[in-house]
Amino acid sequence: MDTQERNDTYMTLKAPSEGLYKEKGSKFLAFAYPVASEEEIKQHLERIRKEYYDARHHCYAYRLGLEGNVWRANDDGEPSSTAGRPIYGQILSHELSDVLIVVVRYFGGIKLGVPGLINAYRSAAADAIEHGRIVEKVASEPFAVTFGYSVTDKVMRIIKDMGTSPGRYTADNVCRIEMEVRLKDIKRFTQRMEEAGATVEHL
């Protein structure tokens, strides 16, 4: 499908949020985060495990990208598919991506059984989402534009016209600007830049 015709927006969380569910003495603390990479997810998980080191389980699920093709659900020692999958199910039902939800369980001494666990992890994750703010996010890809001084005005005009925010800028023998271009604009952006005498490189 042409990037110009693709839907390039999706829903995610604006900021971190928290949720809570209690059942028969067990406490399920839920933490939801907007994330952009698996490296960022790893950092959140390490911090949660360190901060809540005395909890019995640190279960989680995440989903990344416009299509949500990168995802994982982890039960962290709970019976198979009783924790990570219900958490992931809440991410799907709210149609979110670029989101990590971690649910930390403190065992209360009474076993909840498979249906009870599924409900607890699902409810904790849902509570965290409900306490958050869902926003629309535009999918983009990184590009670098290289050009000579003589076409600087043309390049800057294209950037302004297309509402693209320029990032890192360097000027040596030639000028170079790095920026994020939204998916549906890539074809037109590349075409206009090349017509202006600039070289476009996908990073």
TrEMBL record:
GO cellular component: cytoplasm
Pfam families assigned to the protein according to its UniProt record, in alphabetical order: Impact_N (PF01205)
Impact N-terminal domain residues: 24-129
GO biological process: regulation of translational initiation
Protein family (similarity comment): Belongs to the IMPACT family.
Protein name: YigZ family protein
Upper taxonomic lineage: Bacteria, Pseudomonadati, Bacteroidota, Bacteroidia, Bacteroidales
